[in-house]
Amino acid sequence: MLLDNLPFVTHIEFMTNTTTEIPARPRKVNLRTPEVMERVQAEVESHYRSVIVEAARANGGLLKVGEVTITLAKAFGFCYGVERAIDLAYAAAKVFQDCKIYLLGEIIHNPEVNEQLAQMKIISLEEGENGYDLSGVTSNDVVIVPAFGAEVKVMDELKRIGCQIVDTTCGDVMSVWKRVRQYAQEGVTSIIHGKAWHEETKATSSRAMGPDGKSHYLVVFNLEETDYVCDYIRNGGDKSAFLAKFKGAHSEGFDPDLHLKRVGVANQTTMLRGETEEVQRRIAKAIADRDGGNAGENFRFFDTICGATQERQDALVEMLREKDVRKMDILIVVGGYNSSNTSHLAEMGEAVLPTYFVKNAQQLESLGKIHHYNQHKKIVEVSSNWLPDGPVTVGITAGASCPNNLIEQTIVRVMELKGISPQSVYAEANRIMKNCC
Ligand code: SF4
């Protein structure tokens, strides 16, 4: 976990990130002194490191004990953006010990990581219908902005208050902001493939309105919504029905008759690549059909899926392709249920084999009972007889917000349920590490 490439965490940083926002009071605080960094890294390692995961990685992604084989995806777990956000939050807790430290919502979408921050006395501000309640924040306080970023209006309010802001927004998210701002400057409406309720997409949408706040955006969640928009682009339709369907997913004053003339597609960084490409293709085709065969200047797109999401999806594609070679019986996807990138991994898995999306090892209650999240119904379901009798191969992957220690606990729990003691699992991990490193 490195902070080496980071500049000071200051208000000034925001002035370069979000040119439309109000100027911030310059206040430089260096969070990355060697002394702070050393303590941060030691603490982060003690909280999230896993010998078992490291051993399995060193062993080509395999860990076999008794009749259980664990096979890991080539890429899984914490991404660079999440590591950076956690490092900064931990550093803030050390540097600003005498201040009240707030966090806008969750630093990342993982309950265990957020719980760790709560134990460090970092107070999470919940987002209500009217946004975050910042009424208690004073100029003496510190506010941490999570890896997904925050809406322009929230940033403006923090700057007005004059508190110390620790910005952990991921650089890949800011790349999307840059793209939608450019669309706005060129008079192009942003169509954002994403989840309108997700923090990142809300932050992106606010930037799509441009410097004067008068530009427009529309968020489409899936191909069904995309087709609805495409049909409107080609044939027009009932404006009220359109606006009702996309309630909460479009800019104020959005008029589909006016604002779908010139569009640019961008996406939330954690969407499924295949779906995003299809969204782009369908919208381009609809514009071309409307405009006599050539979308030309009326259509732009920019793929803004981040490298880490792509890597994890590619690794799972490979794993699923090799399902029979690896003799994989089931797949366990570990991560927070509100994590976008994790939910897409689960979606990919369930199309191929029995897949269980779990937030932690406690969900693996017994051989006959597992609690797992059904993202389509948005409920936690209980399945029985989920772990096959006899020799079994369990595939495991995890979202970008899932720490290795949770993956380790899941591995140990699977083994335990098959009668293998944690001591045997650690012994095997230590044997691998001794032989290979
Ligand atoms: S998933 Fe991608 S965009 Fe999100 S924090 Fe990680 S690297 Fe950044």
Write up this protein.
The chain is an alpha/beta fold. It folds into three domains: 9-30 and 80-169, 3-Layer(aba) Sandwich (Rossmann fold); 50-78 and 308-436, Cobalt-precorrin-4 Transmethylase, domain 1; 172-305, 4-hydroxy-3-methylbut-2-enyl diphosphate reductase, catalytic domain (Cobalt-precorrin-4 Transmethylase, domain 1), CATH 3.40.1010.20. It has 17 helices and 20 strands. The strands form six sheets. A five-stranded mixed β-sheet has the order 3-4-20-15-16, sandwiched between helices. A four-stranded parallel β-sheet has the order 6-5-9-10. A hairpin with a 2-residue loop joins strand 3 and strand 4. Helix 2 packs across helix 4 and helix 7 packs parallel to helix 8 (199-208). The chain is globular. The structure holds iron/sulfur cluster. Residues 79-82, 147, 170, 172-173, 269-270, 306, 308-309, 341, 400 line the site of iron/sulfur cluster. Iron/sulfur cluster binds next to helix 4, helix 7 and helix 13.
Terminal Cα separation, in Å?
20 Å
By CATH, the topology of the largest domain is Cobalt-precorrin-4 Transmethylase, domain 1
Strand content: 15-25%
Shape: globular
- What would you call the structural class? alpha/beta
Q: Tell me roughly what share of residues is in helical segments.
A: 40-55%
Order of strands across the main sheet: 3-4-20-15-16
CATH architectural label of the largest domain: 3-Layer(aba) Sandwich
Uncertain spans: 1-20
